[in-house]
Automatic annotation (TrEMBL):
<dbReference type="Pfam" id="PF12643">
    <property type="entry name" value="MazG-like"/>
</dbReference>
<dbReference type="GO" id="GO:0047429">
    <property type="term" value="F:nucleoside triphosphate diphosphatase activity"/>
</dbReference>
<protein>
    <recommendedName>
        <fullName>dCTP pyrophosphatase 1</fullName>
    </recommendedName>
</protein>
<dbReference type="InterPro" id="IPR025984">
    <property type="entry name" value="DCTPP"/>
</dbReference>
<dbReference type="GO" id="GO:0009143">
    <property type="term" value="P:nucleoside triphosphate catabolic process"/>
</dbReference>
Length: 87
């Protein structure tokens, strides 16, 4: 999706905003019911992704972390162990 949605009318952008707001409100309510702290979960996920996908190795690539240079296979990399130790 191009940034800023060029070619979209103001009405289309407003409608999209309403739909995205519905999704956000549903997500917040679901997290509350499930006892999930969304802020904490998001921060943990950002840290986890930062370890899995360091900028110097991943910028401009859509490869999974197990396909990046210096990683032979998922078992050898064991990113989840490293992440838990870091967090």
């Amino acid at each position: 999706v191009p940034k800023g949605l060029p070619g979209w009318s103001s009405a289309e952008k407003e409608h999209l905003g309403e739909e995205l707001s519905d999704v956000l409100l549903y997500l917040v309510r679901l997290a509350d019911i499930c006892g999930v702290d969304l802020g904490e979960a998001a921060l943990r996920k950002v840290k986890k992704n930062g370890l899995k996908y360091p900028v110097e190795r991943c910028k401009g690539s859509s490869k999974k972390y197990t396909q990046l240079a210096n990683v032979v296979n998922e078992e050898e990399f064991r990113v989840d162990t490293a992440i838990e130790e870091y967090l």
